[in-house]
Design goal:
The structure is a homodimer of 806-residue chains. By secondary structure, chain A is an alpha+beta fold. Chain A has a 7-stranded mixed sheet, sandwiched between helices. The first copy, chain A, has a 5-stranded mixed sheet with strand order 11-20-19-18-12, with helices on both faces. Chain A has a 4-stranded mixed sheet with strand order 22-30-31-34, with helices on both faces. The longest helix of chain A is centred in the C-terminal third of the chain and has 28 residues.
Amino acid sequence: MAIDLEYSVVGKRVPRLDGLKKVTGRPIYTGDIELPGMLHAVLVRSPHPHARIVRVDKRRAERVPGVVAVVSGADILNTPGIDPWVGPVFKDQGILALDKARHIGDPVAAVVAESREAAEEARELVEVEYEPLPAVFDPVEACKPGAPLVHEVLRPSRAFADMAHVGETGGTNVCYHQKVRKGDVEAAFARADYIFEDTFTSPPAQHAPLEPHVTLAYIDDDDRITLWTATQSPSFVRVSTAGIFGVPLNRVRVIVPYLGAGYGSKLYAKLEPIAAYLAYVTRRPVRIMLSRSEEFHIITKHQVVARYKLGVTKHGDIVAVEAQNWWNTGAYAEIGPRVVHKSGYTSAGPYKFPNVKIDSYCVYTNNVPAGAFRGFGVPQVVWAYESMMDTAAHALGIDPLEFRLRHALDEGDEFATGTPMLSIGVKPALRKVAEAIDYTPPQPKRVPPGSGRVRGKAVACGVKAVLTPSISSAVVEMNADGSVTVLSSTVEMGQGSETALAQIAAEELGVPITKVRVHLPDTDVTPYDTITAGSRSTYHMGNAIRGAAKQIRDQLFAAAAEVLEANPEDLVLRDERVYVRGAEERGLTIPQVFAAKLGALGTTLVGEHVFKTIADPLDHETGQSKKSTEFWFSGATAAEVEVDTDTGQVQVLKFVAAADVGREVNPHHCEQQIAGATILTLGLTFFEWMNVEQGQVTNASFLEYQLPSLKDVPPQLESVSVTVPHPDGPFGAKGVGESGTLSVQPTIANAIYNACGVRIRDLPITPEKVLRALHERDREHGAEVEPPAVQQPPATENVGATDVPG
Amino acid sequence: MAIDLEYSVVGKRVPRLDGLKKVTGRPIYTGDIELPGMLHAVLVRSPHPHARIVRVDKRRAERVPGVVAVVSGADILNTPGIDPWVGPVFKDQGILALDKARHIGDPVAAVVAESREAAEEARELVEVEYEPLPAVFDPVEACKPGAPLVHEVLRPSRAFADMAHVGETGGTNVCYHQKVRKGDVEAAFARADYIFEDTFTSPPAQHAPLEPHVTLAYIDDDDRITLWTATQSPSFVRVSTAGIFGVPLNRVRVIVPYLGAGYGSKLYAKLEPIAAYLAYVTRRPVRIMLSRSEEFHIITKHQVVARYKLGVTKHGDIVAVEAQNWWNTGAYAEIGPRVVHKSGYTSAGPYKFPNVKIDSYCVYTNNVPAGAFRGFGVPQVVWAYESMMDTAAHALGIDPLEFRLRHALDEGDEFATGTPMLSIGVKPALRKVAEAIDYTPPQPKRVPPGSGRVRGKAVACGVKAVLTPSISSAVVEMNADGSVTVLSSTVEMGQGSETALAQIAAEELGVPITKVRVHLPDTDVTPYDTITAGSRSTYHMGNAIRGAAKQIRDQLFAAAAEVLEANPEDLVLRDERVYVRGAEERGLTIPQVFAAKLGALGTTLVGEHVFKTIADPLDHETGQSKKSTEFWFSGATAAEVEVDTDTGQVQVLKFVAAADVGREVNPHHCEQQIAGATILTLGLTFFEWMNVEQGQVTNASFLEYQLPSLKDVPPQLESVSVTVPHPDGPFGAKGVGESGTLSVQPTIANAIYNACGVRIRDLPITPEKVLRALHERDREHGAEVEPPAVQQPPATENVGATDVPG
């Protein structure tokens, strides 16, 4: 790659800037901070999935020594000047439950005390009188007429312009209905030779960041609300907090130290509203930190029921896709409507389908709220459509890889929503993983249970859109000695943003990365950034930093041009020098340029840039838009598995994941991100899920909730970066955080099918399910070949009967 | 003033933003901050004015429980990678004394312990063996051949470009010799009818800020050196600290909370080097805070011996001025050479003298170092030249006010150094104070001692140049709700910069001042500013903020112009709206403009600006320069005093001080600054001085060192703002912090002369001196009129015999 030679820092395997200090335990996380006079808060949680709060008796709790305050929703409602409702899409959640508890674990009161022990002791003494109400847990059931209403009225927030069409409404648990309409699916199905129809489910899951949710709030010496908080969205928290208290944005300060991972769980307002409120009423610093079991009651991954229908001709042309996807968003909308919107409009996958009809329903239930989770809902639909693609290919006797390549979108093709594809790497990714896995077209297999170990290989792919519109702003300061400070609100949560963004600044300013320091988010000084999520930081904040750095470079060039008697356009900034292109000896060091421009030692030059992406307005009846996303993340994965037909156990022998990153800003990071996403999703594929029974999470601890450990990493795990550069990306880069998650699950299911001929439709793929599927298939069909294709089967309405976990 | 109507915030009596919180005791000062594991450091100080350090025995001290480290200069010299020498002009001062102790109180060792008590106990047990050396204390004596050398070699620092001609030298105590040469003084004196010659002295004094010097240093979790410190020059401290440790500038962070006053005492590196070093070696937070008596041993106001010679014709034309000024800069140069340079080139005062020869000597002695002090040395020379002007006027029988007005510089006249005057308010200031005091030309009086109380009125004036070149940089962030954050390294030390700078930002951005917040200095985020000193912040930082705000305004106008279908040039930003000039209804609120430009809530726009002033290079042999200063501060004062000829007691009945502020950004602040400067200088006029005997300060406590209290404020005290706008000042403003100090002292001396006919030449003007002068004059001259003019007296060389305090 000759082009790489142009760059000094970008594209290099630079060690993480935060690596040494993190492995030596030096960084200070939010939970490490103690302020003089700091209080500890704990939450009193509802034992009911749905209940009216009749009365909160605080008297016994208040008498516990050390208790400073006990606060209920009623107290918040009675505090003048406070807007008690929060939420990024609907303002549907109280700072504490205000009228009803809507899920088991819903906070109904808070206890603040001098010590956590005193607060916990008092928590047990808060007496809450509830009037239990009928509850609903299943998203399909919740859509039916007569289902208990989780919210009587829906109040849209103003935070997201592209959700503005969601008006105030009520009388339903469907808080958002997203539609994609393209062509005429009815007519297309009528002329299809085969129609494949199936339902796939994904269970709720936990993000399980190492660091729990924690916020420390205090009123500073200028009477401002200051929050040290474990959040992925400092700018959002500032807006939200200013809104609660009705103060200007600069009267709220949000500081985010290193984050001990997020995976989407720490977006928007979580503990911040209650922490700020408690600091406001006690006038003391208040820390609130969740226990591990509480973590299971704050936010989850969406449980999804996805029903897909594919119409195919006998020549293998796919003529139509229709889908209905029910998203269990739990008790509060949180960011659920946007998850549904985003995943909804990519639910047709990276394929050239001429006719599409997809309905995605975001449904309130009396479960723990569901929000963003690495992949932002897309893995749940890829699970469905990539299982369907395999099913169809097998039925038609077409190699599933060839089937995908034949239908996959090419550069310039229109996505199902009418957006032309730009910088799309699905096909190269598919080819790379297939090659790496030594892919050969699968042979139909029907292995009876108890046949020992059998092997299978398979591929899958997926596509995800980046959050659009969004904004990243950056300020870059260069000191006279060439050292650089980047002010950015991007949260370093382990993903390596600090290093990648420093590489971009270093490259643009011609200094070694060791001279660049990235300031952690502090809304007093780091300018607006939409969120740190959705793999958007490298592209968006990278562009913002590049733009800001360019302003500094322009100033350096203008000053150097005078001294060097050259045109600014002919100058190069590299290796801490400004010199004339092609005459490297005619140059000045950066300190010399500063001296020429400003004289004094220790001076600074500043650049700033706001990088903004825009989406074309979309038609809410059809989901059509000329530009629904700034760009696409493409991923493809391949696996070889071994199925033990005696036990149902599946072992992944080799797994290859490819992601189209545009350009590797740091190849090492890309590998780690892809591998990390793969491992996380393998856990979710095989054993990681929240078991919810009537709204009660029954495995809310790490004893019972299994996460992948080192022993779960496949013996061969390969990460592959595909680099289809984006014309507007920083040095061509797109992003990589989630691409590795997209297609892991159907890859495994497809490989199991290729190994032994059974298809698993409900995650996670436990040995029990595999074994049961082998036995059931055996019982039903004996030695016959399973009829994979069903011609015009009658539509079935009993989707609710699907094996939905929880 | 019709022009004022244009402004919403500038020119208004806005209450101080820091007022309420300061009077309610809320702000956190450096000394309030405690970090976990923080250690306390105290300094072991030399009892000798000049001595070689032979040996430091730390063993007994180290055994005191709680002591963590005892450090000597030798330890610092043995620490690899440390540059042990600091100093803004010469690198002549060790972090601790490295070879010799050069004044009584010179720190030779430091003790760090878990508590201040333990550190103080151990301090007594550090045994230092000294080899005493001959010492010199008088600045005139120190210039003579054979005087003991305080420094054997002088090492120039690189910090000040305009001092670059000071090369490495040695063998002298004169570390800087500043010259002004204009015309031919020899020839002029030869044709003068009268020559007046006299010597005036000013004693050393203490800044006495309420908050002592204090620094808290620690190594942060990224291995960076962080300093919370009471400094007026955060940017300088960053450069200096980075230099000591040889690290890039962004590996040092300097944070300055509100400062409990400075008056010049907290400039450059004071406790920061030793605090940083101790944190570096102990790897723990270290706080060092001076006791009040130690405050007397860190920095002082320059003692000055000023010998002036004025040649005048019988018509009252001044044909020549010659002066020799000896500045006692003490044991280390500190900023002394710049004080001497700055005061040296203004030593001819605001007058049209055709022939000038001034020599200013910055002289090392074995006293406590002298540095910046409100007025930066100018009051010491105004004391001399304004006494001389009065002497000459009286001798010629000319009204001293008329004499001054006749010779004072007008707009466009050349200053003694060749710089044309721009925006010069001396004459209006003189006229205003004369009017306010109900001035009448004085009649010669000769009142014998014991004649009871007599009254006199007088005026004086002075001029001071602003620090040039210098740089202020600012970043301004505007939030989508119109709230604003200003990032500036200007230190709020009680002078009201926070409010004044916020007014400028508010005016420029069309928002109420309550929506503006000025971030306190933090070198990680607030860009470079030369220093907070010399009354420069309103002009320089004001211009930087104005420039940064203009960048935001331009962005708002560009976005609004599209929506409003107007030209950006036709838009106005006021009252939180952008509207078309002359059509106020065609407008958008600031949030609407943000929405149009960026969409999302809570976004930010950023502007930045570097404001830099330049001086023309000056000829070091003549001091001539086409532009030696960006602008001039002019001040004039008038007083009516009552002298008790029985006791020598002087009472100020009325005092009027006028300063040319250019424009009053905040009239209330201007009044307070002028009055505060007057009161401070009245204290220095009458009773405030450091008594130094053989290098030993004998009144190093507030029991013995008197500061003006409320009872010392004249019964009538009036502040007058003169507003000769500066074309490049923000809204015309210049500055005001020091203008009130300039001419207070000669005004009092002149008024005493007018009251009773005696002239005091040595500050402070104690009752004893007045009474002695009355008696001496009476004894020497009986009832005769004192011969005020001396024709061609022989030059006298025994200036050293002058009554120099200390």
